[in-house]
Prior knowledge:
This protein has 738 residues and is α+β, with helices and mostly antiparallel strands. It has three domains: 8-218, Aldehyde oxidase/xanthine dehydrogenase, molybdopterin binding domain (Aldehyde Oxidoreductase, domain 4); 226-297 and 360-436, Aldehyde Oxidoreductase, domain 4, CATH 3.30.365; 305-352 and 448-737, 2-Layer Sandwich (Aldehyde Oxidoreductase, domain 4), CATH 3.30.365. The chain contains 21 helices and 32 strands. The protein is globular and about 80 Å long. Mean pLDDT is 93; it is low at 1-39. Residues 220-298 form the Aldehyde oxidase/xanthine dehydrogenase a/b hammerhead domain. Pfam families: MoCoBD_1 (PF02738), MoCoBD_2 (PF20256).
Amino acid sequence: MTTTLQPHTTALSRRSFLVTLGGAGIAVAFGGLVPIAHADTETVAAEGLALNAWVTIAPDGSVTLVSPAAEMGQGVKTALPLLIAEDMDADWDKVRVVQAPSDAETYGNPGFYGIQLTGGSETVRGYYQLLRLAGAHTRKVLLAVAATHLNVPVGELATEPGRVVHAGSGRTLSYGEIAALGVLPDPLPQASEADLKPADQWRYIGRREVDRVDVPAKVNGTAQFGIDIDLPDMLHGAVLRPPVPGERPERIDDAAARAVKGLTRIVPLSYGVGIIGESTDAVRRAKEALVVTWSTDSRARGYDSAALAQAYRDIGRDLTQHGVPARTEGDAPAAIAGSARVVVADYLTDLVYHAPMEPMNATARVIGDRVEVWAPTQGPTGTQGFAADAAGTTPDKVTVHTTLIGGAFGRKAEADFITDAVLLAKEVEGRPVKMIWSREDDVRHGKYRPLAAQHVEVGLDRASAITGWRHRVVADSIFARTLPEMFKSDGGLDTVVTDGTIFNYRVPAHLVEFLRQDSGRDVGFWRAVGYGQNVFGVECMIDEVAAASGVDPVALRLQLLSDQPRARKVIEAVAQMADWPRPREGRALGLAYTDAFGGHCAEVAEVSLDRDSGEIRLHEVWCAVDPGVAVQPRNIEAQITGAIVFGVSHALYEQINIVAGEVQESNFDSYRILRLSEMPRIHVEVTPTPENKPAGIGEIGLPPIGPAIANAVARLTGGVRLRHYPFLPDRVKAALAG
Length: 738
């Protein structure tokens, strides 16, 4: 008989663990353990045994798992804890999920430099390995404790959901029974990639049967979003902002506002006027009663979106103006100059608003140098910094409670609504202030996706093969404002604005340039960001090259992706789903593909066109997506469907118009979005490759749908190209007229 040395045990209550990179994988080990002589049974009975920062097990066998990311409808409150549960062999029916506190050292996303930030389709990708290792480590701790208690070698033990099993004697210990012992091994075991379950043993990952944990509360109305926060002694707040950003109040006539019953305070701010009152109605009425004279010297007063779109297009065409290279592979200009034929096109994309159902809001309380914030924020780490700046304190003295988010799409990673709440709360120290933007505030003061122009040139040889590809992106920078140090270190390149211009297609020479503009208006992250605009240029140009070469666009893509089996798989799959290229009476099909966020996604759109009105009707969409590991297949289908809807809406309808610095839209009566009656039928096929790590899935479905629509219109009309988002009826009619 072989004997195995059993680890000693140490009793403890809640402890966190550290993550270090090195060796063959990621080693997970606890830090700060304090050995004590006996188990703290009262703590274990009341709170459960905290095996690490992610997992607490109660004596009744219930398991509490921490979700470190913000739940904004994308399903991460299920997907992330599911990863822990998989490798610790938890019983999912006994799992409870709680939101992580604001603590980047413990809960930061490795994919975002260790900060707590949800966005960029980086959540499951960033946490995947870490959380699976946390689960594997938890399982090893449970096995070690069970081995000591049962007095058997660890190697003779196995786990089933929620229990440790010793097959030789038939004895078992539930996870609750192990927790009740109140002990942990000393030294603690470590976990590496070798301890992770192989895919053929997964119980939860990739299974359609797992339901999302956030849905029941959203259905029965008990879910708490930021806008639902209600605290004792709470006041309400709002901020009146100038019609043009960058201006300030020069004179405030608040006589009528002060007469409003329930008004508490008028607060002059450097960027507007704050209002605090006993109710939302009092605040609204006081805000409407204010008469403010604003300064008129903002640089943004010269912003005219229609004129800038044409100016940006002209800049893209002017090859004497050089940009910052994002990719230089071969000598594309020389290759194009020596080509037998050159296909040239310009693509324009208008400003777009995020349009979350829950507008910007936050609740804050300031007591001395301590700040507490309740907010639907995508970035607790950033919120700590923003709140600290506003309150004149340090981030370590700011506590952030991240609520459920009623739509974000990049907008709720920003600081403005957090700053509003904290500045108002400072004025009434000790009392919480709940600040809500009106829909009009939300529309007119957004951080829109940049207005952009793309100039694309592709050279073809006599056999119609591509010789060179030149792609120029003209836009304002997001990173220059949000990540200035990174922007500087990259030499003025904004990698998020140029996302999507660097692709898997095999071309012999490829040049991508970013020509930064500085218009005086802030621009920000919007679902799929650069991919959402630049894949439009890439995929429409691929179709234009196919037409110029007399090649089927599916066949051309497969040829250019001959060394990309995952890309070919989704293109072939979606073509089969849509029965490409079977003609439809009065309708046509268009296809587009993207490799955004580490995945592969191809879509086919079926459209018809009313030539008299210029209105495009989208009837059906087929999509094939390879997400790598499909952590939650049903949720992937839902996310892809939502992204397609978002993409259709911005391709056909959505635009922010700015004249003399002022936004012309104010609410959904003037900011047009896709309506329920205009929804196409959508079919999604998930084709996972479990040997690959998960891709980002929340945004990948958006970029292909716009170019797929444009390419379908071109096939329907014999080659009429739509090159300006959105495809408004007047723009369509102008394209038809030539």
